Amino acid sequence: MHTSQICEGKCGEKLDACSCHVTCVSLETCCGDFKEFCVDTSPYSGTIFGGTDFVVLNATFDTAATLKCKFLSEPALETDGYVDGEGRGHCISPLLYETGWIPLQISTNGGPYNRQGSWLSVHPGKLDPRFKVTLVNSTHWQYYGTPGVGGALRMTWNTALVEATAVNIELWGYSETGEPYTPTWSAKWEYLYSLSKGHPNNGSFSFVPQVAAQQFQPWELGCLRVSSSKHPDGTPDVHAVWTEDHALAWHLEEAFRADSAGWALDKCVKWDALEKSWPNFLEETIDCPCTLAQARADTGRFHTDYGCDIEKGSVCTYHPGAVHCVRAIQASPKYAAGQQCCYDSTGAQVLTSDSIGGSTPDRGHDWGSPPFRSPPRVPGASHWVYDVLSFYYCCLWSDNCHYYFTHRPSSDCRTYKPPKAGAVFGDPHLITFDGARYTFNGKGEYSLVEAEDKKFVLQGRTEPLANPDNAGQQINATRLSAVAMREDGSDIIEVRLDRESDSLQVLRNQAPLTFTEQTWMDLTGVFVFSPVRHNVTVMFPSGVGVELRRRGVTMAATVLLPEGFAGAPEGLLGNMNNDPKDDLVSSEGRPVPDPSNPQDIYEFGASWAILNASSLFTYDSAYLLDSYLSAPKHDPSFLPVFVAPDDPSDPLLPQASQLCAGEGAELCTFDTLVARSLDLGNATRVSLNSHIAIAQDLKTVVSCGWIAPPSNGVKMGTTYLQGFTVTFACNTGFVLQGSERRSCQSDGQWSGEVTQCSPEPPKDNTVGIAVGTALGALALATILTVIILKSRKHKRGSQTQTEDGGTAL
Question: What pLDDT, on the 0 to 100 scale, is given for residue 790?
Fold first, then answer.
């Protein structure tokens, strides 16, 4: 970073428009003419917890000099630096409460802060595992003290990360105090105590946790720090390496170990009461995509949740049954809340109404939100306090998830609207947001998207292709070689082909960014993600996403605009009003006379050439200066080939026919024959197929919403999208009334009638009673008959005895 005073000394004027450099450089960037004042660092990034020792590049110091390093966070923080034996300056990053690029100033021997740079503060969950302490068997740590879980805990680290022969192992705790959603709300990390002092720096430490002392019982979230033993306990901002923040199950009081489920239930019930007293953040959270395909394609608004990533084996600790989760990139506007969406192996969304592994919104967005230091906006830690610890209370340490899901119910996607995708690829072929296809292969710098109301601008640069058979010769075909973009007051992001490698180069406010240490960067008003050197995704607060892919000698761009942009954009990618017929309109508002005429298309494209005054591009080479800054933004002298050669004897034609069979064969064939390159033809084919797949994934899906199982019954099926059917059955002793099967219809309504399970009525025993009565009567008659017969026989016997002189009865 530089100041206008420094630049005045070299340029003679303030650098809000620096004339001594070929580019206009704002006061927020380093001017290339001031290498003695502008410095880089190595490494350039480290954990938000601080403790990274980094070298100040582009500068040398007297070995006896003293350094002060000021990080212009909110508030500004100052740490002591030092100079090593080789005259290299070092700074130690401080404990911060925000992520992203932090302006850095360096003072020598108590003098002015005349060296400027920046430091990238990284979310602990996004930090490369090589640069942090590992909790061996993290499940053991998070369940410690629950039934059957005890013994020793172990942690490991790279010994090179701490320059010491002996280290201290310290526990640090996090707390948020004050009244939530008021100015008194504040966040704090602080040292609690040391687990070990003078431990050999051998990269490993094991311990059996003891019950925490009374004064430390309230601390339920914390992390461990490994630092040199030469520092007193708890010394802040010293060279150190940290674990991630985690639930301190191993640190909790005796009451937790005696009855973890009861202790956790009590915490869960108290959390439930607090949630009821706090504002309802659910009303402003973004709705989840309906399918896994939508979630992975909507890269402007959703990004992979590092805790449940299908590309990395789908661990999904907190979402059993899910194979992939995404998080909303932007926090909600008022409450800084987040959204998480999880999907099963069929691609269907998992809902908390059906499963403990369902999608859950977050009161605190995991990645935080400016102003970062104000809860619940602290990256990582606020999310732990309000969304993760409560999950431990209610779901992991006790079986009371119904409390948790009452306040964290899944979004069921009924209001989700996918974005529209436009594309630029090959010799440039364009597909508008409404699906119109055309080819514009002029040379120059053009407006791809201008959305004045949304304050979003996307510009593209095209340049001639080299002849693959003669590198010094150009052919009459062009490629997309760079794009530059900005939304409102965000950083300007430029992505361009790297001429010295097969990668893409990313510039932030005309200064190069490297992704050697981090794949994700939080910048001013924009996020940039580059997992590999030939893929870059740029994400803006509005939900706009721009994906850049290097394919061979070309760059392909996919632009995603959310529904709110409908009708707003202008430029080469159309107006996004669901009518492809009116997409090709010049910058003066004139429709293309004949969309099938390449010359008319060419003139339409030329009308969207930008001006130097509005250019977002960097001109940092003689080639760019001569070809673009000092030349017309649309080069009228460059005449492209409008029609592919049609020579039956061309030896390349059979190969092109074989390569380009299928969808978009004409585009692939055109590029192959015009550029004389099968590689370019294949790149065009791959890019087109990729766009078709994205457009298919982003098609609107109708959801009928979650449907409940009947009381005293069960539901089979948990996919609630158009064409899917849910089946119901009743428990024993109940009969089904209404529809046994209900299907999700195109109007978003369930077919059939509401399903109920009613108790079975008493069985009808009329026949049984009649038969029983008859049998009873028959039995009675039989008994009476026997009695009568016996009585008569007895009388006859008496008479006979009397007549024979016997005794009568």
Answer: 52
